[in-house]
Amino acid sequence: MESTNLQSAIDTIGSLRRFGSRPGLDSIRALLDLLGNPQDKLKYVHVAGTNGKGSVCAMLSKILEKSGYKTGLYISPYVIEFRERIQINSKMIPEEKLIDLVNIVYSKVNELFEKNIIVTEFEMITAIAFLYFAEEKCDIVVLETGMGGQFDATNIIKTSCADVITPISLDHTAILGNTIEKICDEKRRILKKNSNVIFYRQESTINQMIESYTSEQASHIYYADELNINPINSDLERNSFTYNNEAYCINLLGNHQIVNASIVIATANALKLSGFNLITNDSIKNGLSEAKNPGRFEYFDLEVPTILDGAHNPSGTLALANTLSQLVKNKKIICIIGMLKDKDVNLAISNLSDLFDYVICTEPKNKRKMNCYKLKSIADKYFHKTDTEPDVIEAYKKAQTMSSDDTVILICGSLYLISEIRNYLNK
Questions:
Q1: Which of 320, 317, 326, 257 has the alpha carbon at shortest distance from 291?
Q2: What letter would DSSP give residue 84?
Q3: What does the CA dihedral 200, 204, 209, 213 come to, rounded to 10 degrees?
Q4: Nearest residue to 122 (alpha-carbon basis) of 3, 18, 34
Q5: Rounded to whole angstroms, how far apart are CA atoms 53 and 61?
């Protein structure tokens, strides 16, 4: 059945399986073959990792845009609305265009289904993005992987101008493996031959794995941690640092975002050396200062100050705890938290232990949600006062009634949760 409006197009995509019958790139390859292989007509920066991918992609795509390049951006998941996943020069794919492409691609999905080739939801969205970027003749595409690397649908691309690995930690362990080494092995498989690899060093085991695979691919590695970057000041509105003794500002808050910014600057420098000559120090500075990434320690200056953070795994909540300690001092914090049941909920919550005066457990609108009562039973181990409210809007209203002049409300645990409450706050 043909999609005639935006919601029916999104429903069509959502009707597909989340995972294929077996891992691999055969299905996305078959689908793209039917579409004329649009992915082969584009240049890429490919970004993988566990945390920071979205922020790195947001900053880098803005730098490329400010440098004068027609820049595609493919991200997941979305926070504002579905079309946020596919952008050109900071503009979401137009509704009518998305509807048209859904109808084109879905007809090919059905052709493959008749041959017992199953296309997943993510594979279809990825194919739509490739088709859109190719039709619009993007100069370069900043391409964020989904949860994986080796068998991620985005890894169908053959070459890239740069491959970026953001910090790696435990997440999606049921699919990627239950050790950081297994996860790193999956992520590093996006590294292409004769590319530029940008990496911020972490544990020695991870460093060795990335370095050895880069060497196998005959690629050049750039270490983002070698840049001369030093934090200056951070508050609830801006984050500033020096780079080569010059001041830079970003909208993204927390020291971990300065790490992400260093990855972005190292990538921009590598691209410049590889022929993207329009990139300048000014375009780097302007791109960093204008980039936004909703739902990542995002501050709303409301009657009761409110912070949204999509941290959903242990390394993410550790960064959240550090940022709260850095930026939210001498305040009472009411935390509204909702998580997915396939995360390491126990460890993720333990990183936030005793930071909050009151915790309200809620539920994201997602099939994989953890029941708020089950979440409360875990939260009770780490917080003195906990409560439940399945509906996040009602949980927020409850937190407002409990607030005083020195209160901050924090909503965290899932980007799906953040998406719902953010739309409410903006209204």
A1: 257
A2: G
A3: 60
A4: 18
A5: 12
The phi, psi pair for 207, rounded to 5°, reads -55, -45
Of 339, 318, 354, whose CA–CA distance to 413 is shortest?
Answer: 339
Question: Do residues 130 and 40 make contact, with C-beta atoms less than 8 angstroms apart?
Answer: no
CB 340 within 8 Å of CB 311: no
Name the amino acid, one letter, at 352.
Answer: L
**What are the DSSP E strand ranges found in 120-217?**
140-144, 162-165, 196-199
Strand order in the sheet with 246-250: 229-234, 239-243, 246-250
Q: Which two tokens stand for residue 61?
A: 């795509």
Q: What is the pLDDT of residues 374-420, one digit of tens each?
A: 999 999 999 999 999 999 999 999 999 999 999 999 999 998 899 99
Around 148, how many Cα atoms within 13 Å sit in the side-chain half-sphere? 20
The SS3 assignment for 257 reads: helix
Q: What is the model's pLDDT at position 236? A: 87
- Contacts (Cβ under 8 Å, ≥6 apart) of 327: 234, 235, 236, 253, 254
The residues that bridge with 358 in the sheet, in sequence order, are 334
Token pair for residue 135? 């039709």
The sheet that has 306-309: what strands, in order across it?
Answer: 298-300, 306-309, 407-412, 332-337, 358-361, 386-388
Predicted local confidence at residue 172, as pLDDT: 47
Joined together, the tokens standing for residue 219 give 């690629």
Q: Which two tokens stand for residue 250?
A: 């970003």
- Predicted confidence at residue 18, as pLDDT, reads 72
Token pair belonging to 88: 């050109």
Res. 178 pLDDT band, cuts 50 70 90: low
State how far the alpha carbon of 234 is from the alpha carbons of 48, 239, 250, 324, in Å. Answer: 27, 4, 10, 12
Q: For 23-42, what is each residue's pLDDT tens digit? A: 789 999 999 999 999 999 99
- What is the C-alpha to C-alpha distance for residues 277 and 256, in angstroms, rounded to an integer? 29
Question: How many residues are recorded in the chain?
Answer: 427
CB 321, CB 352: distance < 8 Å: yes
Q: How far apart are CA 340 and CA 350, in angstroms?
A: 16
| Confidence (pTM) | 0.92
Contact (CB, 8 A) for 382 and 352: yes
Task: Give ∠ CA 168-174-175 in degrees, rounded to 5.
Answer: 70
DSSP 357: S
Q: Scanning the structure block, which residue is given the tokens 């998406």? A: 419
Rounded-to-integer distance, Cα 95 and Cα 81, Å: 11
